[in-house]
Amino acid sequence: RTVLVRERAKQGLLQEFEQVVYAKGHLQPGRETFDCVRRFRDHYADILNGDHQVELESWEFDNILTLLREAGRADFWVPPVLYFLDIYGHHRITAFMKKLENKFSGDWFLRGTPTSRIEAMNRILRKIYEIEQKGGMKDDKIDSLLSSDVFSVDTVELFRRLDHWPIYGQPYGAYLLLKIDMITGGPTNRLQPPRQISVEHVLPQNPAGNSKWCADFSDIEREEWTNRLGNLVLIGRRKNASLGRRDFGEKKTRYFSSHVQTFASAMKVMKEVDWTPGTLQQFHQERIIDLKSYFA
């Protein structure tokens, strides 16, 4: 329905089909409807398949799909992908997926409302339709789509927030870290997050007063950096408050070592000998640089 109408539903699905899809000539009842449903079901199965590495010669497309599926119920990115597949198949679909995911996640990180984010995806649908109506060569149409402002994100404000605002506790926190993990791992590595993911601090939130953490970090530094991007990693288990407070060396061996192997970004933390303010800030800036390059 969304692909055909390219607007947010205003009533129930049955009413939408009767009063909008059929009444406005988007689709005819009967065989045409079943053929359409079958075609888009096949496109959706293609998305869920998530195994296109041989055909597309990299894991990038599958990794972006894996990442997007971690957004849970926020699945309004699906209609544009279905529509692109319906018209262009897999031709240049990785470039489209990268643009789509950056728009989807960029608006989320900027705390756009669900309504505004859904409308952003619908604008992409309308742009695909508009370009397709003009005709022309396939590559020219895809070029026009990918250069369109429907994918624009306020990157200045985005990186002001990601660089300076606390990330821990945000609804997009785990997704953002998984995106960084995807970028760090690159297109030659498959993104395969475990079923259970937790966001963990390297520098703990409440270290013991006699710990090395309190010797290495001032109260001001801990207040400023504890919940920011450079101090957070993903682990494949539930958080453990007692182990999470241990000094860095023990925390690595007893807590992180067996639970971060699948996370490329977290493995970089494991290579550090110590976790000081300088190490944390360098790690933070590397992540910001990687994200800026990916959004470019």
Structure description:
The chain is an all-alpha fold. 60% of the residues lie in helices and 3% in strands. A two-stranded antiparallel sheet has the order 1-2.
Strands of the widest sheet, in order across it, are 1-2
- The percent range for helix content is 55-70%
What is the chain-wise order of helices and strands?
HHHHHHHHHHHEHHEHHHH
Q: Can you count the beta strands?
A: 2
Q: What distance separates the N and C termini?
A: 33 Å
Mean of residue pLDDT values: 93
Strand percent estimate: under 5%
> So how many helices?
17
Shape: elongated
Please identify the structural class as seen in this structure. mainly alpha
**Low-confidence region ranges:** none
List the SSEs and their pairings.
Layout: H1 2-5, H2 13-22, H3 31-49, H4 53-56, H5 60-69, H6 78-88, H7 93-109, H8 114-134, H9 138-146, H10 155-164, H11 173-185, E1 198-201, H12 212-216, H13 219-225, E2 232-235, H14 241-244, H15 248-256, H16 264-270, H17 277-295
Antiparallel strand pairs: 1-2
Please sum up the structure shown.
The protein is 60% helix and 3% strand.
Features of this protein?
single chain; 17 helices
